[in-house]
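Students often ask why we bother encoding 3D structure as a string. The short answer is that it lets us treat folding as translation between two languages. Here is a chain of 403 residues written in the first language.
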Amino acid sequence: MATNPGCIVVGAGLAAANVVESLRDNGFDGSITLIGDELDRPYERPPLSKDFLQGKADRDSVFVHGQSWYTDHDITARFGDTVASIDRAAQTVTLATGDTLEYRQLVLATGSSPRRLDVPGAELAGVHTLRRIGDSEQLRAGFTDGARVVLIGAGWIGLELAAAARLAGCAVTVLEFAPLPLQRVLGDELAGYFAELHRAHQVDLRLGIGVTEIVGSGGTVTGVRAGDELFDADLVVVGVGAKPNTELAKAAGLEVDNGVLVDERLRTSDPRIWAVGDVASATNTALGRRIRVEHWDNAIRQGKLAGSVIAGGSGSFDWQPYFYTDQFDLGMEYVGYADAADQVVIRGDKSTGEFIAFWVNDGTVRAAMNVNIWDVNDDLRALTGRQIAADRLADTGIPLTEL
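And here it is in the second language, the structure alphabet:
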């Protein structure tokens, strides 16, 4: 049993790395223990479907901190271990190794896991998901010139992987149940734009089609059956979303509903426990609603916020969500939180590949996206939540700073 209980952070991803960094930056002088089930120290996940996957970045570049950073900052790192249970009354966690550790503050940064397909053949060799660095390394090895790659799901991960596979010379098929890729996030017009982008790069994009079976021979995948067709495959990637890893929190009796429920300061129903990142369903004061966000920027910001709050600082979850993507020659940043049913206002000409899109509801800008137009995201962030006429948003003659 630890004799000097301090803060324990469960999960060693990007959010957790920012929690422990923020704790020290904000003067927290208690003990800090970081526990993660991967042997690697915390790393960033966006490169796994982008530069690292494409061989443009080396392995060392994805890590949040250098090898010695945790020791240098007096943080006990227990990588390759897991927390099996939480005893809230005793304020202890029990690890899979059998050790029991005391805490004064506990942060859950347990992340999310890829959803699996419940179809025959889903466990065949050659069927992949993408979450960890080892997954990306396997995909990079499999994305070879002429390889037949079938991607199931046309969300952000699926489309980024499709682009990476095509750039590697693979023959790529994407199977999506919805009528358009990204339809739930972007709405029909811009979902159609992404569909055409991929088709222009020879991605065989099949929409409105459901996968019924993954077929194989000798235990290895050879194809995917969807509708009335069989799509030959040397490699299959399932990208049908992720689910928050709430099992530990639920077993401990914390309030859970599509994530661990936390307030605007990321505190759970137990005042000694916080949750951050993918697993946190948090009250956002800027939006006036509870949201759960699975993006890089949110992991960093919530990690920093939790560390500050635990160390005695102020602050709340009051920012607009942000994410970005890179696909072929398209680079995009999105800020805000819109519904697909919102009115879309385009500023510029989509056919040029450089434009800005706004999502507007009752005259209020709810989100904005810049496509291949850079250094404007701060301006777009400042416009969210404001009442602005659609004709002014669309008028390229009016600078963003004057809207």
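Translate back mentally: Residues 6-113+242-310 form a domain with the FAD/NAD(P)-binding domain fold (CATH 3.50.50.60). Keep this in mind for the problem set.
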